[in-house]
Amino acid sequence: MKKRIVFTLMFALALLCGPASAHEFLLKPVQCTAQKGAIVPFSVVSAHVFMISEEMEPPAQVEVEMLLAGKKTALSLTPNEVLMTLDGRVEPLHEGTAILAGHRKGVIWTQTKRGWKQASKKGLKGVIHSGKYEKFCKTLMTVGKPDNAYGTVVGHALEIVPVTDPTQAKPGDEIEFTFLYQGRPFVPESMVATYDGFTLTPNTFAYFTEPYGEGRARLKITAPGVWMVRVQHVLDQPTEEYDSHVMRAVLAFEVK
After folding, report:
1. DSSP codes of every residue in 95-121
2. Scanning 10, 18, 65, 239, which has its CA 20 to 30 A from the CA of 174?
3. How far apart are CA 165 and CA 97, in angstroms?
4. SS (H, E, C) 177-233
């Protein structure tokens, strides 16, 4: 029993400390409100501190699109070595709530007795743990005036969907979210949230809660600003390449 507890703790630490799993994958527009036809720059951010990028995601592993007025538009990205971001821009041609949706494809990292390697466990010696790390993110942007598109299901393998419009929330309000895995409701172990400027301490959140029922959770807004909500799901189904599949999903939105 004692050995099993020790192994579980080591496994949890490996997940938390892994170089691929610790960063939050985010889409950061220069503004979360815009007029129809305006050009809005945005960045793909990889951060421990919300929303300060600390490393640049591999361009070949990232896909970004905009959903607006029932249409999907693929967005191109340009590496920014100075800010360690991938940069792009959107030009919304319709009013409503736009969703910037990003997918960082799964990357395998393996912890060995000699350190971490970006490779599968197959053929490696001294393997401690190997994980496939995949990330999804959505950011809500209001174009002109909002509509009910905030609740659009993008189709990510792991997804956070607002039950009520978070862009219309005010400090003191409670807003609700539901969580989907492969398109079906599921209950993650926890939901964390924070807002831009809350702290410069890495991996520190302003809010923590345990979802309930069919996979829902509430967040109490305590300050104005850009917020992020994040959940994680670990699929413990070992393959020849890795031991677990770790997925994270983030939803970002602005509270005024």
Report:
1. -EEEEEEEEEEEEEEEEETTEEESS-S
2. 65
3. 10
4. EEEEECCEECCCCCEEEEECCCCCCCCCCCEEECCECCCEEEEECCCCEEEEEEEEE
Residue from 51, 37, 110 nearest 254 by CA: 51
**Which pair of structure tokens corresponds to residue 221?**
């807004």
Sign of torsion over alpha carbons 175, 180, 184, 185: negative
For residue 3, is pLDDT > 90? no
Q: What is the DSSP letter of 4?
A: H
- Listed in order, strand segments (DSSP E) in 126-173 are 127-143, 158-162
Q: What is the pLDDT of residues 138-191, one digit of tens each?
A: 999 999 999 999 999 999 999 999 999 999 999 999 999 999 999 999 999 999
- Please say if the pLDDT value at position 15 is more than 90: no
Kindly compute the dihedral angle of the four CA atoms of residues 177, 219, 140, 146, in this order, to the nearest 10 degrees: 90
